[in-house]
Amino acid sequence: MLNRRGLDKVVASAAEAVADIASGATLAVGGFGLCGIPSELIRALLAAGVDDLEVVSNNAGVDDWGLGLLLSAGRLRRMVASYVGENREFARQYLAGELEVELTPQGTLAERMRAGGSGIAAFFTATGGGTQVAEGGLPWRYDGRGNGPENVLVASPRKETRDYRGRDYVLEEAIVADFGLVRAWKGDRHGNLVYKDSARNFNPLAAMCGRITIAEVEHLVEPGELDPNSVHTPGVYVQRVVALTPDQAMDKRIEKRTVHARPEET
Predict the structure, then answer these.
(1) Are 94 and 101 in contact, with CB atoms under 8 Å apart?
(2) Domain 5-121+174-250 class?
(3) Could you tell me the pTM of the whole model?
């Protein structure tokens, strides 16, 4: 049995934490929009120069932040995501045939990641039944000469369906990534993590489905300081922890500002 010291998973820097991520790897990246994204780990990957990456994430950040940094640098080969909006470069690369994109219903994407972390190979869901999600033919990659049906270079395959109680259900395969990259509000040296608000949407799932999971944490605490009932990701899923500096923890972006005039201005 490992002693208390042997369970310490903290590494000195984000660069050290991602040093063994090689070109061609598959990454599951947490976050929801720009909330709870592992921005320091992403920047460390950008600096490391790795490319040809396949990324599983709800979305791809924005043009100049989050996964958008890797996109703009041409480091991504393929995205499995549920949302393209707010990132013009994401949409441009997809429509130009520079990036393969497997668009997946958001709930299905979440369950595919959860299943991968739970040892479930596949599952049936009603979502997508009777549509191209099940029947195949969704454009994953264009040839770069247009966006018509004749320009689809890679299309989604037909999926197995079954009738349960008079309704079609679609077989979806689980996702297991080489690495999971997540950001937590709090974490301890054993890798137990707590997320805050919307950051909890996809981070726990990305942590589960990565063979090796790396967590950047805003507030690092000692083992025993976290209430076990408040832990969202148990340390068994996490192999490396990076403690952020106060400046790094505060460096957050707003995806889309919505403002209105002050009462005295109306």
Answers:
(1) yes
(2) alpha beta
(3) 0.91
